Amino acid sequence: MPKIVDHEKQKEKIAEAVWKVIHHEGLDHCTVRKIAKEAGLSPGSMRHYFPNQSQLLIYSMQLVTNRVKTRIEHMEWPGTPFEAVKQLLLQFLPVDEERKLEMEAWLAFTAKSLSDPELRPLRKEMNEGIYSACKKAVDTLAQTAEKPDIDVRLETERLYALIDGLALHSLIEPEQISLEVIDSVLTSHLKSLGG
Fold it and tell me: pTM of the predicted model, to two decimals?
């Protein structure tokens, strides 16, 4: 009896292999041969799933977006609005190994999207998702704030910049931007919004 292959699981396995190669060697060294080896597949079988590198990168990038969305959809929202907002925003930060791999891949894809127009729509989608989460966070905290005169647009931009900055700096300088620093900076900022 022939072996039944779950093609979607195989594609995810390949995309995760892309993330690992990026983690170990960078996007410039993300060759079909290295990805196939990491995924435990032959280079020929990879071409069955992804005929070219752009399609592989698009799928890998989309998988990052989908994983973040799935985590948010399955979140159990903690008690206070402050805690709920904080947990929402932590989904976009490299606070565990899975999110670290995703964020490293995401940053590599973002840089690549500057020269590869096929990647730009997904970059835009993810950035809009992060911005939307930041706006939701600010709106939620503004509703519960003692000082209701928060400039939601300005504070959304500040929070969006903070999330991007924390993510980037924690990957570039992990000794300096530890999980404790991420938590402390995010908590302090959210409290300044009335959390």
Answer: 0.84
pLDDT in tens, the chain (195 residues): 556 667 788 899 999 999 999 989 988 888 888 999 999 988 888 888 888 888 888 899 899 889 999 998 988 876 888 999 999 999 999 999 999 988 998 888 888 889 888 888 988 988 999 999 999 999 999 888 666 678 899 999 999 999 999 999 999 998 899 999 999 999 999 998 876
Buried b (16+ CB within 10 A) or exposed e, 78-115: eeebbebbbebbbbbbbbeeebbbbbbbbbbbbebbee
Domain range summary for the chain, segments of one domain joined by +:
7-192
Q: Count CA atoms within 13 Å of residue 183 on its CB side.
A: 7
Provide the token pair at 95: 């606070």
The answer to whether 53 and 135 have CB atoms below 8 angstroms apart is no
Choosing among 3.40.47.10, 3.30.43.10, 1.10.357.10, 1.20.58.100, the CATH entry for 7-192 is: 1.10.357.10
